[in-house]
Amino acid sequence: MDVVTVTADAExxxxxxxxxxxxxxxxxxxxxxxxxxDVVAEHTSSLxxxxxxxxxxxxxxxxxxxxxxxxxxxxxxxxxxxRRDRALSDGDEVVLGDETFEVVYTPGHATxxxxxxxxxxxxxxxxxxxxxxxxxxxxxxxxxxPGQSRERLIESLRTLLDRLPESVTSMYAxxxxxxxxxxxxSVHDVVERALERAERREPKYPEE
Length: 208
Hints:
By secondary structure, this protein is α/β, with parallel strands linked by helices. The chain is built from five helices and 14 strands.
């Protein structure tokens, strides 16, 4: 599966938006980088769908620009959106590129948060990331802002582990670097480490 981080050169705060190439070209999140639609156009002339992990501003600020540029591809999202075509629910399936992914509802960082779990890859949004300035090799989304819940995020990480196939070898998170499994460390290891750290229930950042 060919995955490109189309917001890699952003100068403003944004999530990682991922173009997934294949028979059903897709974008996971749109990000907040002006001109992201032009970067996507360097890789494809069409998009079948845009799938959102959640609708925090850093994930959707440029969504309208992407939808307009690619003639309204399907917008798949858990929460309501004026341009949503498909409402996602836990257990649904969505095709990204050449792979079918299960939608796993993973709130805590956001009430509408979902992750996309495939046979070889995980698009984890902000529920779990590899590195983010707070922790390396396994971190979790912040839960100190209104509407967020550390307890619910912990439950979501446990759910994600239960539904994550051992065959998944790549994790594409909303922030930080993508992770690819090695002989010494698996995607499961990264998520388990994030869960262990979240379960300490200590502030993620010293200023919290």
